[in-house]
Specification:
373 residues; alpha/beta; Aspartate Aminotransferase, domain 2; Aspartate Aminotransferase, domain 1; 2 domains; seven-stranded mixed β-sheet; 9 helices; globular
Length: 373
């Protein structure tokens, strides 16, 4: 049973808390320890990766290894290029239409929540946007059925957000859009299960959810889509320039790139994407079970498209949010507040969240319900 809120935070054996924040999010402890041990002196060079020239042999080896590990993990086909760029996922909201909408001036967007909304708003600066499907009237709680989609055969590409981080809505299938290039924002669910990359024109993901520190965005782009940027596209935003310069048109975010490389190694050591998928399934299923078996907690997303990575939930009694968040924090369960745009609560449980973290959260939720329910 819970007592008065204690100010002493309960830490894990590694002296850490369980961080349920949506991003920047937890990184694996093993990755942080490795980075720490190499921080001052990377492999006998007498310098930190942070201090190395991006064009040095040492950094080129780090960059190359990171890409080849990512290629192996995702089984990326030869006709795709991989970019490590700056500007986060949001940079791609503009970069995609700038590079793909030169010949055809319209693009299809699935509007399934906050992030697809931002992306289509940005795209409207460059081309016409056709909203192919949306569940906006129900507060973005489901993905409309394929037979209701309004796909425009003249569109330059079809865009969707594979996991809506704020709304907790995830595509558990790859939309079939025929021959039109499919573009996806996988910021919050790339590397959480095996993926058939060959179904896509472009896949991008900001790093700070499952890949590494913020600022970096990983872009996987099919070769035939490169070299078609609109006139006036800045060099930094041109896929042809960035692939030509191997993501080094200017100084790349070297330390984030290195950290991403350590995360790739960690994923392989853990058993790759099959292991990531299994862990994500177990963690999310048990958390939803607690929510569904209670009248105290609620999640209103259609069961068929609930996110395995971001679990938003509400309390029957609105006056208890502050209490829940404060007591959670004291129990070493931090950043459980929902996004400022939607309120409520949210547990983000990416690859680096250990299963024990979810177990601890569940125990806490049961105790909290007993006391206040
Ligand atoms: C976090 C997030 C973004 C924004 O990422 P930035 O790196 O801050 O630009 C975009 N899309 C999705 C799906 C996200 O989860």
């Amino acid at each position: 049973m819970l007592n008065k809120i204690s100010t002493a935070v309960q830490y894990t054996p590694a002296g850490r808390v369980y961080n349920f924040g949506a991003g920047p999010a937890m990184l694996p402890v093993e990755v942080m320890q490795r980075a720490q041990s190499e921080f001052m002196d990377w492999h006998g060079t007498g310098m930190s990766v942070m201090e190395m020239s991006h064009r040095s042999d040492e950094f080129m080896s780090i960059a190359g290894q990171t890409e080849s590990d990512l290629r192996e993990i995702l089984q990326i086909p030869q006709n795709y290029r991989v970019l490590f760029l700056q500007g986060g996922a949001s940079s791609q909201f503009a970069m995609v239409p700038m590079n793909l909408s030169q010949e055809r001036d319209v693009a299809d967007y699935f509007h399934t929540g906050h992030w697809s909304g931002k992306a289509l708003k940005e795209a409207r600066k460059f081309c016409k946007v056709n909203v192919s499907a949306t569940d906006e009237k129900n507060g973005f709680t489901s993905i409309p059925a394929p037979d209701s989609w309004l796909l425009n055969p003249d569109s330059a590409y079809v865009y969707y957000t594979a996991n809506e981080t704020i709304n907790g809505v995830e595509f558990h299938f790859i939309p079939d859009v025929g021959d039109i290039p499919l573009v996806t924002d996988m910021t919050s669910n790339l590397l959480t299960r095996p993926l058939d990359v060959s179904c896509f024109g472009i896949i991008f993901a900001g790093a700070q959810k499952n890949i590494g520190p913020s600022g970096l965005v990983v872009v996987i782009v099919r070769e035939d889509l490169i070299g078609k940027a609109r006139q006036g596209t800045p060099s930094m935003y041109d896929y042809a320039v960035q692939t030509g310069e191997k993501s080094m048109y200017n100084t790349p975010p070297t330390y984030s790139w290195y950290m991403a490389g350590l995360v790739m190694q960690w994923i392989m050591e853990q058993g790759g994407l099959i292991a990531m998928e299994e862990k994500a399934r177990r963690k999310s299923e048990k958390l939803y079970r607690v929510i569904d078996n209670s009248d105290f907690y609620n999640n209103n997303v259609d069961v068929a498209c609930r996110s395995r990575l971001n679990v938003p939930f509400s309390l029957a009694d609105e006056t208890l949010y502050e209490e829940f968040i404060a007591r959670g924090k004291a129990a070493g369960l931090v950043a459980l507040a929902g996004h400022r745009s939607v309120g409520g609560l949210r547990a983000s449980i990416y690859n680096a969240m250990p299963e024990e973290g979810v177990d601890r959260l569940i125990e806490f939720m049961r105790d909290f319900e007993k006391r206040y329910g």
